[in-house]
Design brief:
The protein is of the alpha+beta class. It is built from 5 helices and 7 strands. It has helices spanning 3-8, 23-38, 55-67, 119-134, 150-156, and strands at residues 11-15, 74-81, 84-93, 102-110, 139-145, 160-172, 175-185. Strands 1-2-3-4-5-7-6 form a 7-stranded mixed beta sheet, sandwiched between helices. α2 packs across α3.
């Protein structure tokens, strides 16, 4: 590993409770989400209008995610490079007993200035370990937007496409995309 590659290796922070989020981290999460969405990323949550979005729209959604953090049900994984937020995701489990052994990965984001450096793959590998070793999960699922090549990214990490919901995601008028359902056995 070169010195440059070592400097770009992400450091991970796992956040399991709302009180662990500092105002600075909240701003960074919001800023990352705005930047990723406006750059064409597939992380536009329900209630958002199509891009461009602003921190005024994204901030309250980040607050909802933060307030739902719980060590047993919802964890935030943050990747940082040289103290800058490089990416993040939400790892959650459903409490219903029929699916409590499964988890879901949501809001996977890599800040555009850190793309191509392996941050997203490293974040997904870390999520896999946390889900299996710390949360006791046996399987993970996620939904990915078709048309961006995301399914190939996840396939390379061991995920399997298990179905599609045709036209489920309306990116813009006349631009409906499939939601690709993917699964990973832990």
């Amino acid at each position: 590993m070169t010195a440059h590659e070592a400097a770009m290796a992400p450091e991970f922070t796992q956040i399991t409770r709302p009180g662990e989020i500092t105002p600075e981290l909240r701003r960074e999460l919001t800023s990352c989400w705005v930047t990723v969405s406006n750059a064409g990323g597939a992380v536009i949550p329900a209630g958002f209008s199509p891009p461009p979005v602003s921190s005024r729209e994204v901030g309250p959604v980040v607050d909802q995610l933060v307030h739902g953090l719980d060590p047993h049900r919802r964890r935030l994984l943050v990747a940082s490079v040289e103290s800058a937020l490089a990416g993040w995701l939400l790892l959650r489990r459903d409490e219903h007993p029929l699916v409590a052994h499964c988890g879901v990965v949501n809001h996977v984001q890599t800040h555009p200035r850190f793309r191509g450096l392996g941050i997203g793959a490293a974040l997904m590998h870390r999520a896999r370990g946390v889900a299996r070793d710390e949360m006791g999960l046996e399987r993970l699922g996620l939904g990915a937007r078709a048309g961006l090549g995301l399914e190939e990214f996840y396939r390379k990490l061991g995920w399997v496409e298990v179905g599609r919901w045709p036209g489920a995601l309306r990116v813009a008028p006349g631009d409906d995309r499939d939601e690709i359902l993917m699964s990973l056995t832990l």
